[in-house]
Amino acid sequence: MGIAASDLRQHVIRPALLYLERHSNEAEALLLGAAACQSALGNLLDDGHGHGLFRIDARRHQTLWDNYLARDPELASRVRGLASQHAFLAAPHLELTVNLRYSCAIAWLLVEAERLPLPAADDHIGQARVWRRVFQPHGHLRDFITAWRAYIGNPSLAA
Predict the structure, then answer these.
(1) CB of 92 within 8 A of CB of 59?
(2) Which end of the chain is more exposed for a tag (fewer CB within 10 A), N or C?
(3) pLDDT, tens digit, 9 for 90 and up, residues 126-155
(4) What is the rounded (10 degree) CA torsion for 20, 7, 64, 78?
C-alpha cells in the first residue's frame, strides 16, 4: 500500500527539506513526482532496482556519502541525524526503505549534487527532465507525466 500524495508531501518531503534547509515548492513538487514515478508513492519500496520511495541503489547511496557529503561535514552530520542510531551502522542502505525522511533527504541531495536548474513546481516536463537525469537515465519523460497523473492527479498539488 502506498502513501497518499498529500500525506507524503506534508509529513515526509516538506519536513525533510525544511530540516536540510533546502525547502522550496519546486523541490517538493520534484520529489513528489519522483516518488510517484520511482515507487508509485511507496507501493514498490524494495524490488532489486533500488531501495525506498526513490529506488536509490546501494552504489549511488554510497557514492553520495563518499563524494558529496564527505565534503560538507556539517551537512553530513545533519543527514546522519535523520538516520536510525544503530540500524544505520548495521545496514545503511536499509534506511532508504524504512526511514522515509532519510530517503527523501538522500534523494534531494542526489538532485542537488547534479547542480541542475530546478524547474517551476508546475513545469512537469522540466521536472521530468531532472527526474530522468538524476533517478532514471533510461526513462522517458512520459513515464514521469503518466506517474504524476496516476498517483498525484491534480496539477494544483504541484504549487
Answers:
(1) no
(2) N
(3) 999 999 999 999 999 999 999 999 999 865
(4) 30
Q: Which of 113, 150, 138 is nearest to 33 (CA)?
A: 150
Instruction: Quote the DSSP letter at residue 75.
Output: H
DSSP letter assigned to residue 130: H
Buried b (16+ CB within 10 A) or exposed e, 56-93: beeebbeebbeeebeeeeebeeebbebbeeeebeeebb
Query: What's the CA gap between 21 and 72, in Å, rounded?
Result: 14
Provide the H-helix boundaries in 40-156: 58-67, 73-80, 87-90, 95-98, 100-114, 124-134, 141-147
Q: Are 96 and 106 in contact (CB under 8 A)?
A: yes
* CA–CA separation, 62 and 33 (whole Å): 24
pTM higher than the cut 0.85: yes
* 81-134 confidence digits (pLDDT tens): 998 776 666 667 878 888 999 999 999 999 999 999 999 999 999 999 999 999
